[in-house]
Amino acid sequence: MTDDHAALLAELEDQEDALAFTSFDNLTAWRLGTLVAERALAERLPVAVAVRRNGQRLFHVGLPGSSADNDVWLDRKMAVVDLYGRSSYLVGTRFRASGGHFDTGSRLDTARYAAHGGAFPVLVRGVGCVGSVAVSGLPEAEDHRVVVEGITAFLAADAR
Q1: I want to staple 58 with a disulfide (CB 3.0 to 4.6 A). Which of 29, 86, 89, 105 is the partner?
Q2: What is the mean pLDDT of residues 20-27?
């Protein structure tokens, strides 16, 4: 494992430790999805945004410049979160850090799973992973950034 991989893995794990909800219901999903989408719209990002809880899609929007292909990527990245309970970026980075690649090393159907950045687990304290929030349309580190910044802003506003 390189120092770059180790630093990125530590950062991604710290994000998951820090970004947990006290509860998460349908209204929370809608509010979170709306906040992430509005922030992306303000940056003029050509992305699609989705939020799921327990397999049910509770929020979805395709912003200007996004396409149906982004919806497929959302589903594939969210499937990784569903399976591993970790962010899609963290899962993919772990494979790369060990010298492998998710597409070949996971032995999962790449038409259904994508360990590329952009899907983040909805973690509820005392419960664990109950869903995911995802962005698709940018390079993986940017998709991940948009999600993490959105969750961070949401939790900060919710704490007030």
Answers
A1: 29
A2: 97
Return the DSSP state at 44.
Answer: T
Name the burial class of residue 44, with classes exposed (0-12), middle (13-18) and buried (19+) by CB atoms within 10 angstroms of its CB: exposed
> What gap in Å lies between CA 136 and CA 59, rounded to an integer?
14
Residue with tokens 């906040």: 35
CB of 129 closer than 8 Å to CB of 91 = no
The β-bridge relationship of strands 56-62 and 48-53 is antiparallel
pLDDT tens-digit readout, 32-74:
999 999 999 999 999 999 999 999 999 999 999 999 999 999 9
| HEC string for 77-127 | HHHHHHHHCCCHHHHHHHHHHCCCCHHHHCCCCCCCCCCCCCEEEEEECCC
Measure Cα distances from 147 to 35, 94, 103 in Å: 10, 19, 23
The reply to whether the predicted model has a pTM over 0.85 is yes
DSSP string, 127-142: TEEEEEEEEESS-HHH
Q: Is CATH 3.30.450.150 what the domain over 3-159 is classified as, yes or no?
A: yes
